[in-house]
Amino acid sequence: MAELHFFTGTMDSGKSTLALQTNHNHAARGRIGRIFTAHDRAGESVLSSRLGLTHEALEVTEDFDFWHYVVRSLTQGARIDYLICDEAQFYTREQIDQLAKVVDELQMDVFAFGILTDFRSLMFPGSARLVELADRMNVLQVEALCWCGKRATHNARTVDGVMVTEGDVVVVGDVDQAEPAEVAYEVLCRQHHRRRLTAERAKAVSLAPEPLPFG
């Protein structure tokens, strides 16, 4: 029985490594799959792991249709036994629905990997839909750690080393960037993410210009 699997965890918890391992395990048993990703840190149409492993992938754009792609491929004589879908948080809700349809109507396993929430601690639409539809949801046991030693649960975005609280949801960056001027991410426990988020918002309010008096 085919299933829709969702593997989730913070940044730096090994999701992409597990995606590559999952593909390797199935391919080693003679199964044929397709690998998809979106906005990977290594560039377009590649699935990369922080361990240095990479694999060619199909880039999922906003208008990509999984159902049409799979049906067209099968109609043209291709064999597909499973799909590996990395960075699934960036997929649209409609694309997650398409993946569920592939599982249900074509009996094809789908393995999706992604983080739950953005830098504001708000859930990505794609991840929210996966939580709603997945047959199995797995929180990765390889724990990324906050600087305090607690298990990291949130992803903070920094620019010039300063945590930001506003901006575009999709901005590609990595954990522990060498260049502080670049967009970077830091994994934090809930407590320290909340404290830093509150402090940065308070600072932004204090720096806001005073309204001009009337008269």
From TrEMBL:
Keyword Nucleotide-binding belongs to the record: yes
EC number: 2.7.1.21
Residues that coordinate or bind substrate: V170, V171, V172, G173, Y185
Superkingdom of the source species: Bacteria
MF terms in GO: ATP binding; thymidine kinase activity
Listed GO biological process terms: DNA biosynthetic process; thymidine metabolic process
Family: Belongs to the thymidine kinase family.
Active-site positions on this chain: E87 (proton acceptor)
Coiled coil (residue ranges): none
Statement: the UniProt record of this protein carries the keyword Thylakoid: no
SUPFAM superfamilies xref list: Glucocorticoid receptor-like (DNA-binding domain), P-loop containing nucleoside triphosphate hydrolases
Key words, A-Z: ATP-binding, DNA synthesis, Kinase, Nucleotide-binding, Transferase
Root EC class: transferase
GO CC term (a single one): cytosol
Catalysed conversion reaction: thymidine + ATP = dTMP + ADP + H(+)
Name of the protein in question: Thymidine kinase
